[in-house]
Amino acid sequence: MRPSGRAPDEMRPITIETGFTKHAEGSCLISCGDTRVLCTASVEERIPPWLRGKGEGWVTGEYSMLPRATHTRGSREAARGKQSGRTQEIQRLIGRSLRAVVDLKKLGERQITLDCDVIQADGGTRTASISGAWVALRLAVNSLMASGDIKQDPIEKQVAAISCGIYQGTPVLDLDYAEDSNADADANFVLIEGGQIAEVQATAEGATYDEEGLLRLLRLAKIGCDGIFAAQLDAVK
Amino acid sequence: MRPSGRAPDEMRPITIETGFTKHAEGSCLISCGDTRVLCTASVEERIPPWLRGKGEGWVTGEYSMLPRATHTRGSREAARGKQSGRTQEIQRLIGRSLRAVVDLKKLGERQITLDCDVIQADGGTRTASISGAWVALRLAVNSLMASGDIKQDPIEKQVAAISCGIYQGTPVLDLDYAEDSNADADANFVLIEGGQIAEVQATAEGATYDEEGLLRLLRLAKIGCDGIFAAQLDAVK
Amino acid sequence: MRPSGRAPDEMRPITIETGFTKHAEGSCLISCGDTRVLCTASVEERIPPWLRGKGEGWVTGEYSMLPRATHTRGSREAARGKQSGRTQEIQRLIGRSLRAVVDLKKLGERQITLDCDVIQADGGTRTASISGAWVALRLAVNSLMASGDIKQDPIEKQVAAISCGIYQGTPVLDLDYAEDSNADADANFVLIEGGQIAEVQATAEGATYDEEGLLRLLRLAKIGCDGIFAAQLDAVK
Amino acid sequence: MRPSGRAPDEMRPITIETGFTKHAEGSCLISCGDTRVLCTASVEERIPPWLRGKGEGWVTGEYSMLPRATHTRGSREAARGKQSGRTQEIQRLIGRSLRAVVDLKKLGERQITLDCDVIQADGGTRTASISGAWVALRLAVNSLMASGDIKQDPIEKQVAAISCGIYQGTPVLDLDYAEDSNADADANFVLIEGGQIAEVQATAEGATYDEEGLLRLLRLAKIGCDGIFAAQLDAVK
Amino acid sequence: MRPSGRAPDEMRPITIETGFTKHAEGSCLISCGDTRVLCTASVEERIPPWLRGKGEGWVTGEYSMLPRATHTRGSREAARGKQSGRTQEIQRLIGRSLRAVVDLKKLGERQITLDCDVIQADGGTRTASISGAWVALRLAVNSLMASGDIKQDPIEKQVAAISCGIYQGTPVLDLDYAEDSNADADANFVLIEGGQIAEVQATAEGATYDEEGLLRLLRLAKIGCDGIFAAQLDAVK
Amino acid sequence: MRPSGRAPDEMRPITIETGFTKHAEGSCLISCGDTRVLCTASVEERIPPWLRGKGEGWVTGEYSMLPRATHTRGSREAARGKQSGRTQEIQRLIGRSLRAVVDLKKLGERQITLDCDVIQADGGTRTASISGAWVALRLAVNSLMASGDIKQDPIEKQVAAISCGIYQGTPVLDLDYAEDSNADADANFVLIEGGQIAEVQATAEGATYDEEGLLRLLRLAKIGCDGIFAAQLDAVK
């Protein structure tokens, strides 16, 4: 029934290739089916002005799609001279999601920027970005701990994200583009290992849903994130 | 226990003053406690380029805070030369929320823009904007129907929004600024009359929450929106 | 003969509602007929870089129209990404006009920003902004004096503004939109209590005028400003 | 008493060199003392969108200072990415002033842009721009009439502009930079041959002035503009 | 003597992986040592406005570096709101270089955009972009010919580019970052199969060079481009 | 055979009028045939942030065309809100070219900005800018040495620039607009007195050229620059 033939609770295959670029303190290329995002973590020994003197660090995210990551070419945001509302919304989500699992005091007065650049898009680019960004962050923090720059691990938990939706009346896990563009409702869940919720962004496009519908999507998301948590651990070990 | 002394499921008083400005096809000043938003609906006989020839209309939202709506003056977005990510995120939310209850075919080839300008802010400006925008939209559509420009009512339902959060461990309804800036978790719900969900945007700032926590917030939101639905009906009758 | 039926030297009714918003150090909603402008005065304990070390303060103005303040909706300057030439011209005029009656040394090293946001427009928005900004400024300075932050009153006089024009050959006072859009000549006068001139901006749109015509407009403006001075005093006492 | 030793009603020498650049339909370099402005008139067979179908043309002005026209180098507006409020205000003034003497119907459906680029500044750049722009416009229209593109002369009168001010208590004509930066009051007059007023922009910087003061400045301006009208005629004959 | 131990006329290993992304009509990841650029060719059935009605197509280039392609993170151009002069200069070079080998008439009224996104930088990103862009273009045109949309091959020749420079007094081929940042002189050559020159951009940073020096660099470039031509052919066959 | 009737190795007449504006520390109007560029050198006692504490100065260039310097009016970059890629490319070239002959240590911690504003364009504006900028720089440095602010002359050599191209199969020197817009190949050479090369930017527009062609253009450029070197010396003595 799903265009891909997947079962409703079946995710696309996930692969995480670490060390994809050599300059970043942490990097990976995460693939969720045909969606591929390059995630890098850059450590800088500076903090935003409003944090000065608080003895804390900062974790932030940036997001972009390459112009031809999509079916038809999109114009380059740098050429248009501004980032779209969608891009800014996703960047803010990435930052909040990662900060939900980091103790900024333990990070010390430094900033880690998680750049998520979509190489190829097939639905779920923002959730793949979050899941991959955690891996890049983990690798960058490992290196800061190995060098002695950080004494105590500031990363408290794993965080991962997945989209779910109602496709032709059925709740399904991990929407690809064919589903995403036709789904009745669409929800992105950012979950923390152990079952806690960091973020829910649920939108009814065509049809609305009720409390029961929201719960069914949340349960699918838990199944999905458990799979991602395993892939993350496997990648960083 | 709440700074305002309200019970956990007690909303702030809502008033909706219709016809606040004379030029707009529909307008109201909605007050939720000390949060006051001027909502206007402007009808234009044109549609976005990508809708041409489809026989449909469009409903969109814009949002802004006056510079001194807040405790300290914020710089004017027009002077900075761009809208913040937060503003764009809220504008997109307002548009989606209202479109969730409008049959764009019945609207015909015209666009209605819902401008939500925050005169005074005390928490919950985006949710007040959505609740007030519905009133402005209802008034504008009434006038289009009265003039015969629209034959069948394109507004299918009421839509309203409210924020809930976990404040000092307790789920509470309708956060004001004092609560919002200290809440452990914060969720905005956009609900449709009859109990359906249009949007959920839930964020764990300090602590995360689990499935049960999300449900408790959703149930508070239903209580709140029922009150808003009544105030909306009262305003437009 | 005037569209409103007013006598040539008859102003529209003026009302000034102080304390319209609660966060600003001074605020009022000024109505000149159907033109309504929200004026707020924000005190900040900082000064522009080029004033540092001079022991002086600064008074500046900002101006904006809400998108649907006018008959047809105008696009939002924040969305267009820049302020129009008209907006900047008016902002500069507001700042100069208020500084004409303030002793910046007595103000001390602080800045007061006068935000004039047009809620509803029916001609004369720039002059109403100046007249209302004086009230907001007066209230903010009163509060600085009450708290002892300022010892000597830096406001030396009242300042007010009004437009005059030649409508169908007759000099008239306080143009509304119906007159303004058809006037042969249009002049904005910023006057100081006691009859001094702070600014004249006179433009011949259709027909030009001579020295005698300019004087007749100036005399009308004096009549008008006397009325505004009284309304200002009444509002702040 | 004046820094330059001029009498109060004495203008600086004016020279107008026509044909300063070869591509423009009309051009001149106007020098008012050490203030030098290159004015070009460019004819384009297109009109702004809002004039289409009205059988009228348009006259507009643009203004800029070269970065080192002034005592200290100013940053380039093209590099900063926006035109200052001052620049926009002056551009609007140039356009209005020239349109005051042009019959746009006789101009036909074409646009003439008057570019005023300040090569060297020593006070009075905006008024020199207007006086020079009239010469460039006259030359461009002459050429359109010679070619038969225009049948009836659309230029109805001469227009010129001059600044006056109160310097150390004395009303003086044609402020140079040394006076302008220390004047108590400063007024720009745009006058039309025969004594009519097109624009007055009078600002009290230090001290205010009364009706009598305004009249004295206006009378000085008439003396000055009579000299400019003669120089314009001499340049274009 | 070279930091990498390469001989003066020895290039870094080149690999070209075609089909790196699935949506683009042509794509490859070109690696020149540690410099890696993703090149995609996007075919659009539209042309720039100034080409309409001429029966010709257009080939253009865009270029960007991912923020962490470099040793230290660079800010994102989309976030800064404009493209740097360096980016624009490179984009123009890419477009001119590719157009030098394309018959735009045979391409027909369509545009091909060559996006060159630098994944990892180690010197020579602009030359690698050009060499890779030819491969992406070749693949896209092959597909247009296979579908019958183009009858005659519009690509007349191969084009490739390489940098040369004078490093510690010795002319060397294919500068990497360690050399590039310390070279006395630096030249980028865009060559066409058969030995013709499409572009030379030679800059003396520290020391200047004479005619003989320029010729020696050109001869090294020919050696380098012959190697790239072979790699290109191998990739597209 | 050339549209101007010049011999292939014949330059247009060059004139350099120094002291064209009075405020700049150095200035000249350079004319190469009908191409006229105003070059000013502005000395500022500040340096870019990245040079602080190095005991060095900086030399940079800015470039602009007046809107009607060209056959048809071009829009003003300040009004468009950004500088074109072409402008930025030329600015970078001017800066690099002048820095090639300046010892930045001897300049001391100050910045000299070379503003090149094209008054009238007829081909070769960027090369005329470089040749004129050297004169303005020389005059400004002379004045700094005369005042004792600089002890040792930081200008080591003369630098000049000229364009050459292949026009109807013949290599020609100093392209004017009529040739430039029809040339098969076009090269800009920046040469240093004594025969060294500072920059080569050679582009094949229609046809490509080989090593021999490049050499022939370089030799023409040497002839041309020798003439400019003489004119520069003559202007500054």
TrEMBL record, chains A, B, C, D, E, F:
InterPro entries: ExoRNase_PH_dom1, ExoRNase_PH_dom2, ExoRNase_PH_dom2_sf, PNPase/RNase_PH_dom_sf, Ribosomal_Su5_D2-typ_SF, RNase_PH, RNase_PH_bac-type, RNase_PH_CS. Keywords: Nucleotidyltransferase, RNA-binding, rRNA processing, Transferase, tRNA processing, tRNA-binding. The keyword Nucleotidyltransferase applies. This is Ribonuclease PH. It catalyses: tRNA(n+1) + phosphate = tRNA(n) + a ribonucleoside 5'-diphosphate. Pfam families: RNase_PH (PF01138), RNase_PH_C (PF03725). HAMAP family: RNase_PH. PANTHER family: EXOSOME COMPLEX COMPONENT (PTHR11953), EXOSOME COMPLEX COMPONENT RRP41 (PTHR11953:SF0). One of its GO terms (molecular function) is 3'-5'-RNA exonuclease activity. Homohexameric ring arranged as a trimer of dimers. Its EC number is 2.7.7.56. NCBIfam families: RNasePH. Residues 10-140, 158-222 form the Exoribonuclease phosphorolytic domain. It comes from Pontixanthobacter aquaemixtae. Phosphate binds at residues 86, 124-126. The lineage of its organism: Bacteria, Pseudomonadati, Pseudomonadota, Alphaproteobacteria, Sphingomonadales.
